[in-house]
Design a protein that fits this description.
It is a single chain. The protein is 21% helix and 27% strand. It is an alpha+beta fold. A hairpin with a 6-residue loop joins β2 and β3. The radius of gyration is 20 Å and the shape is globular.
Amino acid sequence: MSDDTTDRRTPTRREVAHLSNEFAVVRVSVDDTGNGPRLLVEDAETGDHIFLSPLELASLCLATPEDREDWIRVGNYRDERRDRSLGAVRGPTP
């Protein structure tokens, strides 16, 4: 007779990195509690977190430098977004 607890898969979370610089501190873990493995990225200061699937991680690799520039716009800088579909931003014509 088998024990019920041995038949259940125990969710695991394994920390793989603790990264910091002068701007941020994050913990990166591999999380197995979803339908498949994914990364858990946690802001050590605020506790905010995000789960990233393999598809989301692959899309990060395909992002342009302009896309990544928009991602880091936070706080007062968040409203400084511009519509890039119209081309480069130009000043007023003299």
